[in-house]
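Go through the following before class.
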Amino acid sequence: MSWSVDDIPDLIGKRAVITGVTGGLGFSTALELARRGAELVVTARNASKADDAIGELRSEVPGVTVDVVALDLADLSDTKRAAGEVAAGYDRIDILVNNAGIMATPRNSSADGFELQIATNHLGHFAWTATLWPLLKASDARIVTVSSLMHTRAIGFDLRTLTREGSPRRYGRWKSYSESKLANLSFALELNRRVKAAGLGVVSVGAHPGYALTNLQKTGTSLGGGVNALAGTAFHQVSRIVAQSAEMGAWPLLRAATDPSLTGGEYVGPSSLGQTRGRPRLVGMTRWARDEDLADNLWDASEAATGVEFTV
């Protein structure tokens, strides 16, 4: 039987924390969880965009409880600060959706000297989740890590990317994006393995939106101006025609976050046209995503890169 947002259970009394809600998947996920009664804690890097998003949420769901936390995942000190605020300010987290990200940016470095895409998409969320871990563990939280169909383009993972020196390979924006999304999925699965081994009640699930229309198609690829800006605009216009909506793209995230039949280690994505669109179902992943040795090494390298010990 196919899943829809009508299958989301009553979430009154539940708290959901979502990264990146100023548009696209994050906003759509927040909106549907709010409609089911969840209290929201959302993060954003841009205060003005956050105000607009919260205003729209409150317009759609009058009476929604929503708090905003400033967060820049590309800055590890800011990430730890924001996670510390959340951990100190709330008594529980029932759902954590690690959604925020960037896509196919020109070569650039984070505030800490790491390649920008791996820093934002993976290392930031690793440090964020690790710092929140005591609260997540105590809450038996459900953690959803958002990957991408593009993880299938990654042929392994170069751990040198998780050093400030970086990989000596020639930079490729789509290669780096694909590897960051492989890292997201590998993290979700490794977290599930460690949770199960420890006998904990936390649930870790991966999800991807298929080919969904979001601002990522324009903002990341447009950075740097010139030809990049033209390419980003063209990509976004094509996406407006062929991609499914951000609302539908959020369905796999929402199923991963709320379906009680998912007990950890699953990967949820669209069901049609090569996982690019459609209702959510359990989907496959590459052998690299299932590689437990790679996942273990990636975990250790992420601890070293972030300076955060993540002991499950």
About this structure: The chain is about 45% helix and 15% strand. The chain has a mean pLDDT of 92. The domain at 10-306 is CATH 3.40.50.720 (Rossmann fold). The first strand starts at residue 15 and ends at 19.
